[in-house]
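Technical annex, item 7. During the second reporting period the consortium partners agreed on a shared format for inverse folding records so that results from different sites could be compared directly. Each record opens with the tokenized structure and is followed by the designed sequence. A conforming record, contributed by the partner at site C, is shown below for reference.
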């Protein structure tokens, strides 16, 4: 039996554990990216915007290829009826992050402290920056967990290759994301160690969300099309409301755009190639 076949068998028998391991992998790449703070004193703004653009591209591609398309494919009915679960789930996912965005105090990476969002608090800029990236990571972990849960439940359209592709894509964009949160913290006066700790901590929510997503799908199997679309709606909201505005605060919008295109192509290739 090949390594891939062993991976498939393990994921089908232990979907929650598979989701946990996959999300620990994505967290590990966030921590690896944050660890670059030990090697570099400053970060080029063009590089930061390019990284954020790449993150957005991966998230948009994953939302369609890994989440919405399988969700529609496994939905019952024909025509307009077939797309109802995807539309409802997508809307609810976007509204979920919209609600968190209004309540959770956070600050976008390239924004002034006076532009912090959510409930007003006396929390320091460093905490607000970390919470902003944490908000990014909730739908990412949820997406990984839901897809692994769908594979274990045997739904048509949910494949182990697609789940692995999603985990790889999320991990790839988490690497620059970890760097993108740790370096600004370092620039604001934190030590390298504290900057790293905050950077990696921003992704700790991913394993939690992944396990919850896998458990929910395994427990309530009919919700899978809704759950996949829910994760997609949450990710698209994050891209449009959080990631893209962060890349438009300076003169490097073209670099951010090309980063977005690159991220989209890589995630699309991973999903189609492995799925």
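Designed sequence (site C submission):
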């Amino acid at each position: 039996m090949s390594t891939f076949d062993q991976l498939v068998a393990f994921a089908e028998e232990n979907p929650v554990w598979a989701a946990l391991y996959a999300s620990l992998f994505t967290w590990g790449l966030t921590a690896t990216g944050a660890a670059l703070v030990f090697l570099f004193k400053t970060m080029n703004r063009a590089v930061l915007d390019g990284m954020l653009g790449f993150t957005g591209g991966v998230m948009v591609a994953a939302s369609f290829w890994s989440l919405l398309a399988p969700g529609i494919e496994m939905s019952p009915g024909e025509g307009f009826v077939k797309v109802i679960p995807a539309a409802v789930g997508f809307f609810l996912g976007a509204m979920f992050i919209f609600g968190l965005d209004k309540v959770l105090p956070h600050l976008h990476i390239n924004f002034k402290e006076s532009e912090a969002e959510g409930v007003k608090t006396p929390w320091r800029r460093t905490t607000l920056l970390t919470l902003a990236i944490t908000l990014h990571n909730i739908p990412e972990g949820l997406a990984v967990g839901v897809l692994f849960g769908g594979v274990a439940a045997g739904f048509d359209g949910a494949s182990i290759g697609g789940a692995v592709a999603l985990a790889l894509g999320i991990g790839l964009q988490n690497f620059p994301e970890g760097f993108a949160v740790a370096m600004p913290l370092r620039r604001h006066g934190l030590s390298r160690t504290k900057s790293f700790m905050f950077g990696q901590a921003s992704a700790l929510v991913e394993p939690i969300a992944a396990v919850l997503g896998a458990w929910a799908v395994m427990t309530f199997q009919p919700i899978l099309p809704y759950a996949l679309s829910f994760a997609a709606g949450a990710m698209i909201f994050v891209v449009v409301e959080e990631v893209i505005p962060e890349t438009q605060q300076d003169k490097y919008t073209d670099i951010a755009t090309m980063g977005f295109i690159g991220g989209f192509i890589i995630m699309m290739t991973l999903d189609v190639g492995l799925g």
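Residues 153 and 245 are 38 Å apart (CA to CA). The mean pLDDT is 83. All partners now use this format for quarterly exchanges.
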